[in-house]
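Appendix B. Raw example, untouched.
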Amino acid sequence: MYPGEFLKYQDYLLMLQLDFNLVFYDKSKKIWSTETNASSCSLELKTTGELVLSSGSRQSMWSKSGRSPKLGKYVLVLQEDRNLVVWTPSVGNQDQLVNHIPTSHTN
């Protein structure tokens, strides 16, 4: 995800703002933020399930690690219950929660 891009589900919005701050909104109200600042950045979901906000020089400004040390494919999901989570792809019919990013308060 790059500045100006977002994930949206109903009234919930996760946006990487043009000021390089990752912010979670509920009905336009700021609920949570990384409070980061840089000259450029990107948000990446790593093959380890870790969500990383990196500066243009690829230095980590914020990250949230998951429970799985396994390399694989992961999915960032903004759920209807206002949770932002990382899931592994289905193994059999069982998705596995790897990472829960708290969105209940402002940093």
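End of appendix B.
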